[in-house]
Design a protein that fits this description.
single chain, alpha/beta, Rossmann fold, 2 domains, seven-stranded mixed β-sheet, five-stranded parallel β-sheet, 12 helices, 14 strands, about 45% helix, about 20% strand
Length: about 375
């Protein structure tokens, strides 16, 4: 072989090797410093664990994965700054966000940059059926509110008072709109809606008074775990027996820890089956507990599913196949508890499981 051809061949091999060893950056954006930090931390931990396991298995096509983490602070301005910092890091994709309000704030940036946002949990109807850079792994507020309406009516709760957190209005307003469409159709009546802005200074005692003044047959809280715990405590000071329910957003271990006896009997939906004996879920659960010293919450489980989807799509992606198409066209993905499939807009769905809090634990109900 001529010297210049040999040199060119060696250079090509060197460049190929360097390209394969360059990390694939995966962004993460979630609430790590505010009242929803339990969901953000659980999600971050799950993605961290998934990346560690994938790297231990050789990465993707020989390339290691590198995680870029950003705290959205659950505020639009902070979220946009966090998103800008992530985009500057040139990630292959970003896992998150975890609230609809943050999705509303940062999706335009993702669309402009052409970077996939893979959200494990957001449900607001404003993101359903849209051709954008958002991929959703959850069902919609329409699905959830409809199932709640049936559960409430089935329990004889036909007169409802609702407390609603407007800090995450993109989610809470969508959820209430769908409840207003489904609950009255089954014979239910929404007597009053009390809006509040989630903050440490919020007067939950005043909210409890307003809810109970309507003499409802039950209360529904559209809020995060911290606020639901506080609301339940104030309500129980005034009424020992009014039935309580909270939307799926509140379904975390923090609800049990902070709510104590006040949340006993509370009805809440979950996006996974905590009692699932399946091998995939059990293995993840035990590994997560060993790594982080606590049970994985719903955002951790949904994030693990998002990682399964993302890593598979990245392994199949080529220059001619954009990542969003690779995800959508990937067929069935083996999630922890169910297979995952996307429609042409990048929307998916999940099974739902209702639970009551009994003796400080979530217990599944029919």
């Amino acid at each position: 072989m001529k010297p210049h051809l040999l040199l060119a061949g060696l250079l090509a091999l060197l460049l190929t090797a360097c390209g394969k060893s360059e990390p694939i950056r995966i962004g993460f954006i979630g609430g790590l410093s505010d009242r929803t930090n339990d969901t953000g931390e659980a999600a971050r931990n799950a993605l961290m664990l998934a990346i560690e396991q994938r790297n231990a298995a050789g990465g993707i096509d020989g390339r290691p994965l590198e995680m870029l983490v950003a705290d959205d602070g659950q505020e639009a301005s902070l979220a946009r700054k966090a998103m800008s910092a992530l985009i500057a890091g040139q990630p292959a994709a970003i896992v998150g966000p975890y609230t609809s309000a943050v999705a509303e704030a940062i999706l335009p940036q993702a669309d402009q940059a052409g970077i996939v946002l893979l959200s494990p949990v957001i449900t607001s109807m404003q993101f359903v059926g849209k051709d954008d850079m958002l991929i959703r792994l959850n069902r919609s507020t329409r699905d959830n509110a409809g199932d709640y309406a049936q559960q409430l009516i089935g329990r004889g709760i036909s007169r409802l008072a609702v407390a609603l957190d407007v800090r995450n209005r993109a989610f809470s307003a969508s959820w209430l709109d769908e409840l207003r469409a489904s609950y009255p159709a089954l014979g239910g009546e929404i007597l009053t809606v009390v809006e509040f802005h989630s903050a440490a200074s919020t007067s939950f005692s005043d909210i409890a008074d307003q809810l109970l003044d309507a003499a409802p047959g039950g209360l529904l809280f559209i809020a995060n775990a911290v606020d639901v715990a506080r609301l339940a405590q104030q309500v129980r000071k005034r009424s020992a027996d009014v039935p309580l329910a909270a939307v799926e957003w509140a379904s975390t271990e923090q609800l049990l820890e902070l709510g104590g006896r006040a949340v006993e009997g509370l009805l809440v939906a979950q996006s996974h089956n905590r009692d699932d004996p399946g091998a995939r879920f059990t293995a993840f659960r035990e590994t997560y507990k060993a790594r982080f010293g606590r049970e994985p919450g719903y955002t951790a489980i949904a994030t693990q599913d998002a990682a399964i989807v993302l890593f598979d799509a990245l392994a199949r992606q080529s220059r001619a196949l954009p990542l969003k198409r690779a995800i959508i066209e990937g067929g069935l993905y083996p999630g922890l508890q169910q297979d995952i499939r996307f429609d042409r807009f990048g929307d998916s769905t999940r099974k739902i499981h209702f639970a009551e809090i009994r003796n400080g634990a979530f217990v599944l109900v029919p």
